[in-house]
Design goal:
Layout (H helix, E strand, L loop, with lengths): L5 E5 L4 H12 L3 E5 L6 H7 L2 E4 L6 H8 L7 E4 L20 H9 L4 E4 L6 H5 L7 E6 L2 H13 L3 E6 L4 H18 L20
């Protein structure tokens, strides 16, 4: 599903973007990184089949505007979490309902927006080996979510279909809870693990 695709990681010099790019390259995938200090966002998006946006919420609108002319008909994976400093331990979802739904509005209906990678610590991904964290993938089309699931699995995560794009609000909000848990219990990157699922759940069921 991914072997003949080029993946653009927008914000790829940040912690999450760099870690994902490194893992996908290690898995043998073709990756181009878009950043302020390297290949321009627009050029990276235009050169890729799948675009993964890994930027802070404060930069989301600017980045989406930069790549929008180059992503029509493509899958854009939004990893944005609506954290609003200084109260990052408090859930603050945008008026659209979630950052992913905001991305869809910003990019337009011709773009196939899915979301994921909200609840995995970037520094855990930067370390070698499997990561003890599930990745929930959201999107309105099953086939598009399957691409996100494949990306997460290529990065060494167990990936699960989380349903419609609107459901991304749950994972985005949980990030603030995980930040609170990390501080309260002095955790080194608390993550999410879904229990009592069969080995191969049927996402269409």
């Amino acid at each position: 599903m991914l072997t003949d695709k080029t993946i653009a990681v927008i914000g790829g010099t940040g912690k999450l973007g760099a870690a994902l790019a490194a893992r996908w390259r290690a898995a043998g995938l073709e990756v181009v990184v878009g950043s302020r200090s390297g290949t321009a966002y627009a050029a990276a998006a235009g050169a890729a089949d799948i675009i993964v946006v890994t930027v802070p919420f404060a930069a989301q609108a600017e980045i989406m505007a930069a790549i929008a002319p180059h992503v029509a008909g493509k899958i854009v994976v939004d990893t944005t979490v609506p954290l609003v400093p200084p109260r990052v331990m408090r859930v603050q979802l945008p008026p659209e309902g979630s950052a992913a739904q905001r991305a869809q509005v910003l990019l337009g209906e011709s773009v196939r927006v899915i979301s994921g990678f909200h609840n995995v610590a970037a520094h855990k991904l930067a370390e070698p080996g499997a990561v003890d964290c599930d990745c929930l993938v959201f999107g309105d089309a099953l086939a598009d979510r399957a691409v996100g699931v494949a990306l997460a699995e290529a990065a060494g995560l167990r990936a699960l279909h989380g349903g419609a794009l609107a459901n991304s609000a749950a994972a985005e909000a949980l990030t603030s809870v995980l930040i609170f848990l990390n501080k309260t219990y002095r955790s080194d990157g608390a993550g999410l693990r879904i229990t009592n699922l069969p080995d191969a759940p049927d996402p269409a069921a």
